[in-house]
Amino acid sequence: MGGLRERRLLSDPARPTHLSMAALAGIAVLAVLFGSPAAVVESATDPSDVQALGVLYSALNSPPHLFGWTSSGGDPCRDSWKGITCSGSAVTAIQVSGLGLNGTLGYLLSYLLSLKTLDMSNNNIHEGIPYQLPPNLTYLNLANNNLSGNLPYSIYTMVSLNYLNLSHNSLSQQIGDIFENLQDLSELDLSFNNLTGDLPNSLSSLSNLSSLYLQENQLTGPLNLLANLDLTTLNIADNNFSGWIPQEFSSIPNLIAGGNSFANGPAPPPPPYVPPPSRPHNRNHTEAPTDTPQGPESKPFHPDNKNNKKSLTAGSVTGIVIGSTLGALCIVLAVIFCIWNLPKKKDDTRKNASPSLASATIGADRATDKEMQEQRLKTASVTSLKPLPPEKMMVEKVYGKNGSGKRPKVPITASSHTVASLQLATNSFSQDSLVGEGSLGRVYRAEFSNGKVFAIKKIDSAALSLQEEDNFLEAVSNMSRLRHPNIVSLVGYCVEHGQRLLVYEYIGNGTLHDMLHYADDSGNKLTWNARMRVALGTARALEYLHEVCLPSLVHRNFKSANILLDEELNPHLSDCGLAALTPNTERQVSTEVVGSFGYSAPEFAMSGVYTVKSDVYSFGIVMLELLTGRKPLDSSRERSEQSLVRWATPQLHDIDALAKMVDPALNGMYPAKSLSRFADIIALCVQPEPEFRPPISEVVQQLVRLMQRASMVRRSSGDELGYSYRVPEHEVSMTDLSF
């Protein structure tokens, strides 16, 4: 405004000189106050980066030696916060190694979309690694801390990662199949942790990996999947690896493998080919014979049987190969002799065995059920495209009436409660404690004597058949191991006196359905950015169920009423895994269809078939709710608008119609350029034919890209809040903003 007035004054020669001088003086003052970059109140740093760093600072207990940092506001790039590097308005590096930091990593690191380097090694950071990490990192170093839990699945999406060091922590559980997309990774260090289980198949796809450090863990199984990697350094010392050391390892310059349980000598030749038995097709993974049979535990391959670390040389491997050939041949002949002389009783046993036993090969006849299960897991194809779960979710069938039979062989990680304790916590399941009701039963708020609050789902016993009651503990065993920040965690259960109760973490800010459709002014809390986070968070929850868990878990009842919101409006998907208990009685099915009809995919309504693609359809309906603020079915509207999907779908590619569909509660405050992309994702999800709907992992990637584009718009926009907002029609005359 000052610049425009300046041009007018200078271009008018008729004005007196003293007036022109006064005007120029005023303009100079205005220029100092409003035109100087130093006087601009707006932060030079992207607001999302500022917010993420503020949360991180608070999570680290606000250490005073992080000079410049603050938990709220501030300008990291302009004020040169300690350890922060910027490029323009974007934070590109956080390097705070060895500063004695004590705390956690917070929950907003994923907001740092331009971050390339994160080095917080050599501190005292504890608890788990956040599930959602900065997606575009090339360098991640969290070594020498006190981190626990497992490796987050979000590493799977960090396709630019070149260096990953999580060594010297307390990480545990099995390493998930999370490395398939990390084609740029050159160095991986997971040493000195408590990691267990076999190595994931996706390690074999790291074509650019040169250094791998796995020493001092509790890893098991063979090493065949590492044989074809072009490694220069491999340290696998002091684990529980078994089988034979691949001959290809003799070419690795720096190899340390002592302190394991490798078999002596070379691997024997493979057994004669046995045609695989016919199996039902499993889309998640295929099974194939193992590359190398497993040998018995024996002393390590190296002569250093005192667990000292020694390098393997090419000469030592070659010598043992030559010296042990005759011994291996004798072993093969002995095995063939034993098989030939097996008693006929084994054939009778096989005829009466379960399908899984009947399909086993001859060499597995002596194995126990557990050994056979482990063998099937080890023979999963290396080319499987589905990532393995962080923890194998294989459970045994539960037998006995009323679910009172023996428990699953796989332990239930949730705690067991008595009916009396749950009655006390819910005031005998009083009406005042009732917070919700679904097709399987009611949900109560429970406050225990220690002050902790949980949600209790009381399963309606009339809704379960005898078989479903017997399956209850099996379902609990599966649900108790679901671990994802956007999934409501099952923490306990009860099976006393014929009761079936589930104890969940308590999310106390209501459901997405209520916040969108019922609560006064709550729609205003759900800004466009909050709705995007809800969509992405719930999509990631479905991705975990569909593509991390094996076999895939279908939610089957995905709707906004099953999306709980916490105080920060982060979404938490409930009822995950309850499909195993979904009743099959005519009464209950009709109840469920009525309750969720607006979300049901066409194939379910027509044939009762429900797959992961049906979940994707239901997710598209929830996205429509987020976009429009309307219910999936609303009998109060005109007949042509009562079904949300039928009304909205034809308009999703019409820009003008799309702008009119947006939830009025947003008051026009949304980035207009994101609107059509959001609608494109919806249109794909609600395709009538399931084969044309994308897998949920593709939906996640599209939503991530959408948020990244929105972030770039915020950085480049001159608007006060960083968005190019759609302006309501009644305000068009008041402004000339374009979008």
Automatic annotation (TrEMBL):
Residues 266-279 have a biased composition (Pro residues). One of its GO terms (cellular component) is membrane. It comes from the Eukaryota. SUPFAM superfamilies: L domain-like (SSF52058), Protein kinase-like (PK-like) (SSF56112). One of its GO terms (molecular function) is protein kinase activity. The keyword Thylakoid does not apply. PANTHER family: LEUCINE-RICH REPEAT RECEPTOR-LIKE PROTEIN KINASE PXC1, PROTEIN STRUBBELIG-RECEPTOR FAMILY 8 ISOFORM X1. This is Protein STRUBBELIG-RECEPTOR FAMILY 8-like. It comes from Phoenix dactylifera. The gene is LOC103717064.
